[in-house]
Amino acid sequence: MAAMNAGMDRDRYRAALLTTVGGEPCTDLDGERPGVWLPASAWQAIADIVMSQGAVDVTAALKN
Predict the structure, then answer these.
(1) How far apart are CA 48 and CA 46, in angstroms?
(2) Residues forming a β-bridge with 27
(3) pTM (predicted TM-score)
(4) Do 57 and 36 meet the contact criterion of CB atoms below 8 Å apart?
């Protein structure tokens, strides 16, 4: 039961994040895998969120 609740929380968080930063449904170039196209402003918002949480060592990430 706990795993199902964690999954539901993840789905709600993902939906809220996409609602906040924007995005359009799309598929890969072969049209087989669904995904979400994000505008440049969305990538900036995601970067701001991640950096504000201290979740990433940006210098190390950029080197790799």
Answers:
(1) 5
(2) 34
(3) 0.52
(4) no
